[in-house]
Design goal:
The chain has two domains: 6-53, no CATH class; 54-144, GMP Synthetase, Chain A, domain 3 (2-Layer Sandwich). Helices cover 27% and strands 35% of the residues. It contains three helices and seven strands, in the order E-E-E-H-E-E-H-H-E-E. Strand 1 and strand 2 form a beta hairpin. Helix 1 crosses helix 2 (122-135).
Length: 162
């Protein structure tokens, strides 16, 4: 039996609808249910039309938004008064040579500054932010090795991914 307090489960299906534009149907299954369509595109640098945020823009926004949300949610539960939260994030990746493709992406650095306005004692605010970081699903995903499984189908026939 799992010790989980709750589960978070999403699924997404994407379709190519332009040069590099994608439309992704996102479904949240647990702990809430919602369906949304989110589009991504690339800028002119990559050959796109810049009609929507890039996947990395969504990624960094997700990281900042998740941590900000957790700080406010945890503040209520821990009864710590928080008047304001501001987060600045600097994220860097690098493109490295790849033996097959044009390049391979690698994360280089994530720097996050958290600025909390609160009447609570600084050590309580520090505890709050630490707890919120542990509760931020995006930051926790970044902070550990993850198993990512791929299945490949070419013309309807399943293939072994390289």
């Amino acid at each position: 039996m799992s010790e989980a307090l709750f589960k978070v489960r999403f699924s997404a299906e994407g379709a190519c609808v332009g040069k590099l534009r994608n439309e992704v149907s996102l479904t949240a299954h647990e702990p809430f249910q919602v369906e949304r369509m989110l589009a991504t595109d690339e800028g002119k640098f990559q050959g796109g039309d810049d009609t929507a945020p890039t996947p990395l823009e969504f990624f960094v926004t997700g990281l900042v938004g998740c941590l900000m949300t957790q700080i406010r949610v945890f503040a209520k539960r821990l009864k710590i008064e928080v008047e304001d939260v501001k987060i600045s994030c600097r994220a860097e990746w690098e493109a490295l040579p790849d033996p097959v493709g044009p390049y391979q992406g690698r994360p280089a650095k994530f720097e996050i500054d958290v600025d909390v306005t609160s009447s609570a004692a600084p050590d309580r605010v520090a505890e709050l932010v630490s707890a919120a970081r542990r509760g931020c699903f995006v930051e926790q995903t970044l902070g550990q090795a993850n198993v990512i499984k791929h299945r490949l189908s070419v013309n309807g026939a399943e293939q072994s991914p390289a």
